[in-house]
Amino acid sequence: MVDTPKSAAAETRPKSGKPTLRTLADLTGFAVTTVSRALSNAPQISAETRRRVHEVAAEIGYLPDRAAQRLKTGRTNVISVLLDPHEEILGYGTSLMLGLAKALTDTPYHIIVTPNFMNDSNLDAVRHIVRNSMADGLIFSRTEPFDPRVRFLLENDFPFVCHGRTELSTPHPYVDYDNFSFAYEAAKRLITRGRRKPTIILPPKRMTFSQHLMHGFMTAVREAGVAYEIPEEIHLDSPIDHIRDFISRRAGQPDAPDGFVCGGEVSALATITGMSDHGLALGVEYDIVAKQTSKLLVNIQPKVETIYEDLTDTGEQMGRVLMARIAGTNTADMQVMLKPTINFPAT
Amino acid sequence: MVDTPKSAAAETRPKSGKPTLRTLADLTGFAVTTVSRALSNAPQISAETRRRVHEVAAEIGYLPDRAAQRLKTGRTNVISVLLDPHEEILGYGTSLMLGLAKALTDTPYHIIVTPNFMNDSNLDAVRHIVRNSMADGLIFSRTEPFDPRVRFLLENDFPFVCHGRTELSTPHPYVDYDNFSFAYEAAKRLITRGRRKPTIILPPKRMTFSQHLMHGFMTAVREAGVAYEIPEEIHLDSPIDHIRDFISRRAGQPDAPDGFVCGGEVSALATITGMSDHGLALGVEYDIVAKQTSKLLVNIQPKVETIYEDLTDTGEQMGRVLMARIAGTNTADMQVMLKPTINFPAT
DNA sequence: CGGTTCATTTAAAACGTTATAAATAGGCTC
DNA sequence: GAGCCTATTTATAACGTTTTAAATGAACCG
């Protein structure tokens, strides 16, 4: 058998740095090409050769040079996640990436996070990544109905998955949460608990899921025929004190709402603080149903009812879909909708 | 002058993809080497050539291929930030990276975030980054007195800056916050406000700054000669509900603390909730002084007094120090201590 | 045994950049 | 005008990988 190196003596060995294909070639007596092929499990390499090369590679801890692979193939083996500052609060990013990492296990892909400072849109970051081919795929959120990032990526045929839908006519990969159902069930719950005037704190209007939430909320209040109101002055991305102060001000006026659907945990906390300025107690004078994405809110304020959005699952789905997109599978099964699991305590 | 290309006709032009040095060479009539040198402002290139090359490069939007640069030079132009899940809550990561990004403006360095899942130490991530030369420099936090990551990086002479000090004898770059002063001033403040039994919620004991906080706290209570206690059951990284339940339980027992120094905002919120289980009100029956690193706490609970830690400044300092370390400047000025700015309202 | 297959291995070229060493051409001196 | 600086430019060789095309040799066929 080939258990000893053949005649690998006269080779020009690399000084002694990191092991390279060349090192493996010298060690096994095969040519660099063969080693490369063996490691990538190319079909035309004999089983015995493949085995031997893998063996020695593992032994000396060979790892391919990503820069060289990237230069040669044009592929970066990198997935870039665009994160807004808004999103890192309360671990949106963490949960999402935990799932993403799970989906990318056993792929050659690395995750790199591109945080978005300064500019409110991250279209520039998208352009930069595409133009400099800094990644093979993109993941982002805060999707808008006619999202310029989606437009740009579709035009350039660059693989991506966004969290949230658009209203563009070209179908594209996305993973979304059923925000209609969330808001519908949340509002219904408030009404069931006897609240006569629900309200909802929405994301900025330009984001697609703002419409979905609004629609779900409206459907519930119309079905029940109760009063409602929708504040224009604040949204989920407003500074916390703005929300708090607005709620407080409103609570001091006539016909104040007695039920809140909160799209995020932070806005729920701000609401509680604002209401308490007037001595109003959660669960007594008013109720809140909030979207739960972390443990913070429920542990601080167990009286808030919540509906869970599983961001880790979201991240995992996004990873799965992105892999499919990069592999070039057809667009079926590239649009995922995640359902909220409602689990209110019995009333 | 050289305002028209010389005889650049017979060159083998690249198909038509992204512009490369070769494209610029053909366009300007210079050799690839000259173009490369001109762009990197090498001294031996004539001023006119330099100008012309830069001009054309800007015109066609040339951007160097990072993979090729990296392969050739061995430098990655990447700074890697290791983030723990704990840290992304409440935007620790965001603030830090905002500052870091500021410090890296006008350098060729990119920031990439390596999130740490699974394993509680990220020594593995450090090893991986060093071994595969995935970055030119490393930034991390949650530093321990005999931090194995610091040890490893020092042994391998790999540039890094950590947030927090060690007790290793080899001096190394770090940026730290004066947690002694924080805890000292916080405890003193509680005592000044008439609290008779302060306590402190510390980070896990294995982290260096846990000792600093404890020391500052102890100094203050000893100076004042008041009672105190230090809970062993919980720490800043404990699940929120553990903290809340512990505080609640303790509040129901005799000799409960009436003043809390909280090392983080989340623990302060949990404390408030735990105390309110027994009808105890913040600012009435007890006080809290917390470390403030975001706007969340102060906007939710303005009655909590806080001392600010400027994480953006921290990030900027870390970037500055890391650049110096990479440039090989001597180790002076590589140890930065940031002072808390105390600004309590007049009593 | 020459020719044709097939399975396996190999040499050489390329990706875009930088580093090394060499070439070119003015401008001097003598 | 030969000789020698100096300033500027250039050709060539890497970096470690994959791809393309070619080589090797064993087996098989007529």
* Biggest pleated sheet of chain A: 6 strands, parallel
The most extensive interface, with participating residues per chain, is: A-B, 42 and 43 residues
> What is the radius of gyration of chain A computed over CA atoms, rounded to a whole number of angstroms?
27 Å
Q: CATH topology of the largest domain in chain A, anyone?
A: Rossmann fold
Give the proportion of residues in helices of chain A.
Answer: 40-55%
Count of individual domains of chain A: 3
Description:
The structure is a homodimer of 347-residue chains. Chain A has 347 residues and is of the alpha/beta class. The first copy, chain A, folds into 3 domains: 64 residues, Orthogonal Bundle (434 Repressor (Amino-terminal Domain)); 128 residues, Response regulator (Rossmann fold); 130 residues, Rossmann fold. Helix content of chain A is 43%, strand content 13%. In chain A, the strands form 2 sheets. A 6-stranded parallel sheet of chain A has the order 2-1-3-4-5-10, with helices on both faces. A 4-stranded parallel sheet of chain A has the order 6-7-8-9, with helices on both faces. In chain A, helix 12 links the parallel strand 7 and strand 8. In chain A, helix 2 packs across helix 3, helix 6 packs across helix 14 and helix 7 packs parallel to helix 8. The N and C termini of chain A lie far apart (75 Å). The interface between A and B is large, with 42 and 43 residues.
